[in-house]
Amino acid sequence: MIFVSEKxxxxxxxxxxxxxxxxxxxxxxxxxxxxxxISEIEKGKKNVTLEVxxxxxxxxxxxxxxxxxxxxxxxxxPTLKRGRLIVANKAIELLQKLAPREKVDG
Length: 106
Prior knowledge:
The chain is an all-alpha fold. The protein is 68% helix and 0% strand. The chain has helices at residues 6-20, 24-31, 35-42, 50-60, 64-74, 80-98.
C-alpha cells in the first residue's frame, strides 16, 4: 500500500490543475464539486478523499496511481541547492506523460 503525505497529494493536484489550464472554478464544475473544496484541498485545509481522486482520474484521464506516484516523488527533504530542480524535473516528467498527443492523419 502506498502512503502519501496529504500535503504532497494536494500539491500534485494543484500542479495537475495548473497544467491543464483550469481555474479552480472551472475544475470544480468539471469534477462536480464546489470551488471552495478545490481551494481548501490545494491549501491543505481539506483532506483529499478517494472519491475526489477518482473524479480527477476520470475527468482528466489520469490514473490514480500516477497522481499518487507523482506526489510520492515530491516527498522528502531534498538538498536546498538541488531541491527546486528535483521537484521541477519530477513535475516535467509527469506533465510529459499527461501531454495530449497530436493525432497524425495518414
